[in-house]
Design goal:
It is built from 13 helices and seven strands. It is of the alpha/beta class and 339 residues long. The chain has a single domain, classed as Glycerol-3-phosphate (1)-acyltransferase (3-Layer(aba) Sandwich), CATH 3.40.1130. A seven-stranded mixed sheet has the order 1-7-6-2-5-3-4, with helices on both faces. α3 crosses α6 and α4 crosses α5. The chain starts with 5 loop residues before the first helix and ends with a helix.
Length: 339
């Protein structure tokens, strides 16, 4: 579905979310009674009540964020100084608050535990970062950005799917901050990456300072088996036989798209590189999978690796990317097997 123009999203979608939130809160006692009555009839432990609580929380946070963003727009002279450093910091503050509350309540209600393995956060201080992350499982991008903002004190710049702009609060805040949106056409070209996409990525990754983190998901989308096979077929059809062969040897990741990684590395030669893998929810591919698994009652493990900028190879980024992607695939395999 095509994304509507920005003025439609601001004038229609944002007010609709506020109205929906007000309606849900007014009728919340009815929803709670219905959920409490239905829950014992369904498998799982209070599954309907858990989903209802998270959904209501998400709506309230969305509406509160929209009100805060409107206040920031007014305070910035109706947008005149919206992109100045002080206003940007205030916007990152809204992002940090939103993700912190959503994370805290989600892990409590859905019975999740998050464990992070890797370098101490102090090792990242004062260094610009290029963060390349595996993309699999529900909420993985939110968890990564929450970790960067609230645990590592970073201001992330993210390459995102354009469809996320259907969410009014994300649409507003992410378009005010230094991010880039890519459409399905941008990430679905016949070659691994298009020149236009690489230029946009390089522009976003340039001029990073000591508290910035450029974020890219090299796979271009969430993992599933059909996408993995389609990605391998795309590489083979494009004449990238070696990349297809190496991708076939990796079972838990999609074939990475090297163009964006190479562009970011070239644009930020002084940045350290951080590779991020995670496992725990990556077996949930659909809404039905998530519903059947509730409450999740599981541990999500994240593994971070840091490579100092002077150890990053500049002459063979594609081979280096595939080496790391194989390492991530091996880590996911070992984690799933309890090693």
């Amino acid at each position: 579905m095509n994304l509507p123009p920005r003025w439609v999203r601001r004038a229609v979608l944002a007010p609709a979310v506020l109205a929906l939130t007000a309606g849900v809160l007014v009728t919340l006692p009815v929803w709670l009674l219905v959920a409490a009555a239905v829950s014992p009839l369904l498998p799982g432990r209070m599954r309907v009540l858990r989903v209802l609580w998270v959904a209501v929380l998400a709506l309230v946070l969305e509406s509160a964020a929209l009100v805060a963003l409107l206040a920031l727009w007014v305070a910035s002279g109706f947008g005149a100084v919206i992109r100045t450093p002080p206003m940007q910091r205030l916007h990152y503050g809204v992002v940090a608050w939103y993700l912190r509350v959503l994370y805290r309540e989600s892990v409590r209600v859905l019975r999740l535990r998050v464990e992070i393995e890797g370098p101490d956060p102090d090792e990242y201080l004062g260094r610009p970062l290029l963060v390349f992350c595996r993309h699999a499982g529900p909420g993985d991008s939110f968890l990564l950005v929450h970790a960067l903002v609230n645990w590592y004190a970073r201001e992330p710049r993210i390459v995102l799917a354009a469809a996320l702009q259907w969410d009014p609060a994300l649409d507003v805040v992410l378009n005010r901050l230094p991010n880039r949106f890519l459409s399905a056409h941008d990430v679905g070209r016949s070659d691994p990456d298009g020149d236009r996409t690489e230029r946009r990525i390089a522009d976003l990754a340039s001029s990073l300072d000591g508290d910035d983190a450029f974020v890219l998901f090299p796979e271009g989308g969430n993992f599933n088996r059909a996408r993995r096979l389609a990605g391998i077929r795309r590489l083979r059809d494009g004449g990238f036989e070696e990349m297809a062969r190496r991708s076939e040897a990796m079972r838990h990741v999609l074939p990475p798209r090297p163009g964006g990684v190479s562009a970011a590395l070239a644009a930020a030669p002084d940045a350290d590189v951080v590779w991020v893998a995670h496992a725990g929810l990556d077996h949930l591919y659909s809404t039905a999978d998530i519903w059947r698994a509730l409450p999740l009652d599981t541990t999500v493990r994240m593994r971070w690796w840091r490579v100092p900028h002077d150890e990053v190879p500049r002459d063979d980024a594609v081979d280096w990317l595939y080496d790391w992607w194989k390492r991530i695939d091996d880590w996911v395999d070992a984690t799933r097997n309890g090693e």
